[in-house]
């Protein structure tokens, strides 16, 4: 505890004596120091500090979204904090360049001393994943027992407790579900939207059939097949049972209601009332993309360091990391919404009363 009456001194304020006394290479302790182990430790520690800051931001957002009603003024703070996370993610990716100045042979000088420790056991990274809606049972390549078995009992229990409760993901879902504009007594946006989509897809079918004479039959068949599957994808959006089946199969995460409302925001994002909600949805996609980029870059780096060797945490190494990068996505449903966008010129006209609420002039 600092003495609050003393003048503030840089090193004491930042508690540098503690911070800078935590780089202890195992190779040095064992009497044969590997030069690059210090870099390895510092790079990991810096990552954990940034994870701590990301969690600080995500937890503050979680507290905001736990409310049953959120004012617009608070949403602008949400946007700023999401922006901050995006900037940090940029550093997370770039920092791998520093790690890669260590060659695979230099890594081999101390790698075996680390077993079975691994970034796989980064509890803060798992907390971030859980807050963003990633569930233990949804992981590919690692089952629950293997995944939790790598962690100390108290860490595994803490993470499971976190996973059981509301996460930022579930609260954002609830916030989207509450969005009031797409349906009212006198207006159902979705009926009008479906008729625009039907017209659009029928138009596509006519174009394909018109080209029949000039294109090979198998190409026309493929296009018709594609169109059929687009129609089916649209149907799942409006058929509650079919949609819930996709959720059960792990093909969708967001509820049907939240998905429809997110789509409404994307379609009418130009309306002032949706500026902030649109920026939030857009930032959530950026953050999902940011972690995916980090995972890909980290997987490539691990490949470069290890070749096809297994990781110190006992996974298949590069193969596991590649699959995690492809599958561990939080807001994939938002990305998939682009399937359902229609040209601005074909957007159904909103009733005047609603249009007035969604606009302001000055
Ligand atoms: C020489 C450098 C590195 C190598 C060769 C490497 C390798 C690996 C491997 C093979 C795994 C899979 C689990 C296992 O079997 O161990 C893993 C997981 C992980 N590593 Fe690294 N890593 C390196 C550096 C880093 C750094 C600097 C961080 C920053 C915190 C990091 C964070 C993680 C995380 C969070 C996981 C879990 C990923 C997941 O389960 O999706 N790694 N690493």
Structure explained in plain terms:
The protein has helices at 10-13, 16-19, 26-29, 37-65, 72-99, 104-108, 123-131, 144-149, 153-164, 168-177, 189-210, 217-238, 240-248, 256-267, 275-306, 318-327, 332-336, 352-358. The chain has 362 residues and is mainly alpha-helical. It has 2 domains: 36-180 and 268-328, Methane Monooxygenase Hydroxylase, Chain G, domain 1, CATH 1.20.58; 182-254 and 331-362, no CATH class. The longest helix has 32 residues, at 275-306. The protein starts with 9 loop residues before the first helix and ends with a helix. The model has no long low-confidence stretch (mean pLDDT 93). Bound molecules: protoporphyrin IX containing FE (HEM).
SSE arrangement:
Elements: H1 10-13, H2 16-19, H3 26-29, H4 37-65, H5 72-99, H6 104-108, H7 123-131, H8 144-149, H9 153-164, H10 168-177, H11 189-210, H12 217-238, H13 240-248, H14 256-267, H15 275-306, H16 318-327, H17 332-336, H18 352-358
The structure holds protoporphyrin IX containing FE (HEM).
Protoporphyrin IX containing FE is lined by residues 43-44, 47, 99, 107, 118-120, 122, 125, 298, 302, 305-306, 311-315, 317, 320-321, 324, 328.
């Amino acid at each position: 505890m600092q003495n609050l009456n003393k003048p503030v001194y840089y090193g004491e304020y930042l508690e540098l004596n503690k911070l800078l006394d935590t780089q202890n290479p195992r190779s040095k302790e064992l009497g044969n120091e590997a030069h690059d182990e210090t870099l390895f430790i510092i790079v990991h520690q810096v990552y954990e500090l940034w994870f701590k800051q990301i969690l600080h931001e995500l937890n503050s957002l979680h507290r905001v979204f736990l409310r049953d009603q959120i004012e617009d003024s608070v949403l602008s703070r949400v946007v700023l904090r999401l922006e901050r996370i995006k900037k940090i993610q940029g550093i997370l990716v770039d920092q791998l360049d520093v790690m890669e100045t260590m060659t695979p042979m230099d890594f081999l000088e101390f790698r075996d001393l680390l077993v079975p420790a691994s970034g796989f056991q980064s509890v803060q990274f798992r907390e971030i994943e859980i807050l963003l809606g990633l569930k233990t049972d949804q992981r590919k390549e690692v089952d629950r027992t293997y995944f939790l078995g790598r962690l100390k009992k108290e860490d595994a229990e803490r993470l499971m407790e976190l996973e059981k409760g509301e996460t930022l993901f579930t609260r954002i879902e609830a916030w989207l579900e509450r969005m009031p504009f797409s349906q009212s007594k006198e207006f159902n946006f979705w009926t009008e939207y479906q008729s625009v989509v039907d017209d659009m897809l029928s138009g596509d079918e006519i174009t394909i059939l018109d080209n029949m004479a000039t294109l090979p039959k198998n190409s026309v068949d493929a296009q018709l097949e594609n169109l059929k599957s687009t129609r089916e994808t649209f149907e799942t959006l409006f058929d509650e049972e079919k949609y819930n089946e996709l959720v059960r199969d792990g093909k969708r995460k967001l509820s049907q209601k939240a998905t429809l409302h997110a789509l409404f925001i994307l379609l009418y994002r130009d309306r002032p009332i949706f500026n902030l909600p649109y920026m939030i949805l857009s930032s959530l996609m950026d953050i999902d993309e940011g972690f995916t980029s980090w995972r890909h870059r980290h997987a490539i780096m691990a490949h470069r360091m290890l070749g096809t060797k297994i990781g110190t945490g006992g996974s298949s190494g590069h193969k596991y990391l590649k699959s995690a990068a492809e599958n561990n996505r939080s807001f994939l449903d938002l990305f998939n919404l682009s399937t359902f966008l229609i040209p601005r010129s074909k957007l159904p006209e909103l009733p005047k009363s609603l249009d007035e609420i969604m606009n302001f002039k000055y």
